[in-house]
């Protein structure tokens, strides 16, 4: 990495409006996540506490969404959190470390996040193509990442139209699934689930944390518009509106999806299913219904991988344009005005991430992001409020209560996530800090004196 500055910083055009920003969030949120994690949630906590975990996750995301909304409105730049952390903690002091650590964790988590959507896509494709073995699913997932890179290699305005179109289809499909469940809801089946109880209070709180962590992973994406802040029209209004609209919208869909499934499938069957929505729709509409549901899920997971790649591809670009990463990553397409090298790099590493398993990825991905970024962003709001900022910027209601709830919630999720995930995240933080200090000493920048 280099401290070399870029002579001229070309800025991508602001082409994303509210509906484009909302679709970027919603399509990211309604990816493969809930379709593969509902069985994991049912296995983690017995009885109605599962629904409480989904509600708790949505509430935590709403509080954190207020943090993102204020930061995105105050500093509407592409690469979002990289700029938030640097500005809040001092661009030439601690902000350098926080900005670097965010970039470092993004290089780790972006390929894993994108790859998880692609792996989920390949797993559901196995329902339609039973002969697709493990090797075939890996190749399909990696191929999807590379294909999405090719699709995104164009002007962002064109991608916005595609994103909005896919989002509309996905929302309609989810509504169809929920309505089908309500129409065939069996009280006796749901009652068996509602009467299940955990063995102990200790087991309940651990299970609640596990379900909430899964829920937060599935709700993840409400901040995607912040990654594209420099390409958003009227960002001080559009970014908060897109963030805070997407969370309740998707929360209602997810709760409806859970309730619908538990009113049709016995919860034991749902907990063991590898393609729970396909089994659910097949139970109602037969094989044709299951096939159609899987087809729509494949569309959702493809779209999710597409928009996540779009958002994350802007982070190395933003760092390079700020002189904190290899300058080649700041290169923009001469006609389209989109980052080229950054996009190709993130797309290629995402294809490599598809060779990893999905299960451990979720917990590790979330804990790394919490320790590297989410908690630091909560305090970033406090730091930025002490300075003079634009009067047009969004200000969260009930400040600082949402921040306190977010910090407590994140710490609770980390504490209940399991030792392997916490150790992995802590090691990643330590390694990233050591790399930063080595780089700072080599360039004689903060915290080392220049003379």
UniProtKB/TrEMBL annotation:
Q: Which Pfam families match?
A: AA_permease_2
Give the bilayer topology.
Multi-pass membrane protein
Task: Please verify whether the record's keywords include Transmembrane.
Answer: yes
* InterPro entries, alphabetized: AA/rel_permease1 (IPR002293), AminoAcid_Transporter (IPR050598)
Main location per UniProt?
Answer: membrane
Instruction: List the transmembrane segments.
Output: 26-45, 51-69, 101-124, 136-153, 165-183, 203-220, 241-267, 287-315, 336-358, 364-384, 396-413, 419-438
Organism's domain of life?
A: Bacteria
Question: Which keywords label this protein?
Answer: Membrane, Transmembrane, Transmembrane helix
Where, subcellularly, is it found? Membrane
Q: Please give the PANTHER family that the UniProt record associates with this protein.
A: AMINO ACID TRANSPORTER (PTHR11785), SOBREMESA, ISOFORM B (PTHR11785:SF512)
The protein's name in its UniProt record: Amino acid transporter
Q: Which organism is it from?
A: Luteibacter jiangsuensis
């Amino acid at each position: 990495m280099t401290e070399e500055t870029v002579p001229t910083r070309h800025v991508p055009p602001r082409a994303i409006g509210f509906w484009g920003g909302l679709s970027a969030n919603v399509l990211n949120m309604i990816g493969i996540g809930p379709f593969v994690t509902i069985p994991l949630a049912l296995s983690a906590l017995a009885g109605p506490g599962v629904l409480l975990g989904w509600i708790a996750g949505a509430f935590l995301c709403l509080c954190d969404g207020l943090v993102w909304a204020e930061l995105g409105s105050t500093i509407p730049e592409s690469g979002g959190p990289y700029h938030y952390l640097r500005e809040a903690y001092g661009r030439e002091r601690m902000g350098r470390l926080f900005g670097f650590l965010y970039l470092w964790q993004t290089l780790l988590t972006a390929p894993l996040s994108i790859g998880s959507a692609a792996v989920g896509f390949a797993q559901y494709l196995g329902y339609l193509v039973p002969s697709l073995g493990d090797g075939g699913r890996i190749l399909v997932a990696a191929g999807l990442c590379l294909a999405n890179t090719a699709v995104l290699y164009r002007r962002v305005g064109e991608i916005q139209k595609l994103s909005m179109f896919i989002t509309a289809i996905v929302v309609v499909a989810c509504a169809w699934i929920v309505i089908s469940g309500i129409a065939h809801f069996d009280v006796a089946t749901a009652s068996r689930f509602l009467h299940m109880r955990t063995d102990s209070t200790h087991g309940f709180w651990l299970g609640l944390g596990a379900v909430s962590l899964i829920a937060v992973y599935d709700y993840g994406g409400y901040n995607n518009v912040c990654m594209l802040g420099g390409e958003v029209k009227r960002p001080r209004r559009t970014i908060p509106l897109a963030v805070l609209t997407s969370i309740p919208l998707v929360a209602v869909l997810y709760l409806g999806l859970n309730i619908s499934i538990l009113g049709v499938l016995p919860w034991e069957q749902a907990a063991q299913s590898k393609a729970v929505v396909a089994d659910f729709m097949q139970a109602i509409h037969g094989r044709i219904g299951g096939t159609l549901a899987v087809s729509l899920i494949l569309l959702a997971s493809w779209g999710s991988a597409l928009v996540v790649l779009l958002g994350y591809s802007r982070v190395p670009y933003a760092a390079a344009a700020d002189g904190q990463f290899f300058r080649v990553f700041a290169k923009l397409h001469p006609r389209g005005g989109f980052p080229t090298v950054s996009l190709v790099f993130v797309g290629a590493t995402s294809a490599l991430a598809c060779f990893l398993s999905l299960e451990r990825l979720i917990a590790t991905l979330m804990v790394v992001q919490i320790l590297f970024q989410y908690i630091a962003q909560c305090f970033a709001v406090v730091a930025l409020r002490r300075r003079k900022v634009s009067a047009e910027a969004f200000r969260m209601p009930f400040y600082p209560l949402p921040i306190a709830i977010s910090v407590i919630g994140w710490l609770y999720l980390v504490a209940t996530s399991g030792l392997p995930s916490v150790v992995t995240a802590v090691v990643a933080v330590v390694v990233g800090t050591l790399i930063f200090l080595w780089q700072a000493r080599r360039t004689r920048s903060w915290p080392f004196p220049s003379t």
